[in-house]
Amino acid sequence: MANVTKNRPLSPHLQVYKLIPTMLMSILHRITGGALYFGTVLVAWWLIAASTGADYFEWVNWFMGTIIGRLILFGFTWALLHHMLGGLRHLMWDVGYGFEKHFSTKLAKANIIASVILTVVVWAIAYIIRT
User: Fold this and answer.
1) DSSP secondary structure string, the chain?
2) Where on this chain does heme bind (predicted)?
3) Phi and psi dihedrals of 19, rounded to 5?
4) Structure pTM?
5) Do residues 82 and 115 touch, judged by C-beta distance below 8 A?
6) Which of 32, 71, 88, 96 could form a Cys-Cys staple with 79, CB 3.0–4.6 A?
7) What residues contact 86, with CB distance under 8 A and at least 6 apart?
8) Is residue 34 scored above 90 in pLDDT?
9) What is the pLDDT of residue 6?
10) Which domains, from first to last, does the chain contain?
């Protein structure tokens, strides 16, 4: 019996691939999708604390107000906005637009830039409203 795998090409390892913007956005879209599960747990924790009582709710609010809590919330905000923009990019592809290589690359770069800018804008507005 002949070894049929000798004639088949080997898949290149990750070290062979050059990281391009569209590949990075695909990876980040999956990561942010996973991060949104964690963020949903945070929202559920906050709602459970609100229904449990004032003391526990104040403690959760205190934690979310610490530097660690704010970093977590900032990351959740970025993940939410980045994933939303990636979803809009996928919706555009679903209707048949944006498949050209150069446009797709520009859109991938715009996705990361816009998600960072929108996150900063959301947090700036929150701080303005808070004061």
Assistant:
1) ---GGGGSPPPPPTTTSPP-HHHHHHHHHHHHHHHHHHHHHHHHHHHHHHHH-HHHHHHHHHHHHSHHHHHHHHHHHHHHHHHHHHHHHHHHHHTT---SHHHHHHHHHHHHHHHHHHHHHHHHHHHHHH-
2) 83
3) -70, 120
4) 0.83
5) yes
6) 32
7) 25, 28, 29, 32, 111
8) yes
9) 66
10) 20-130 (1.20.1300.10)
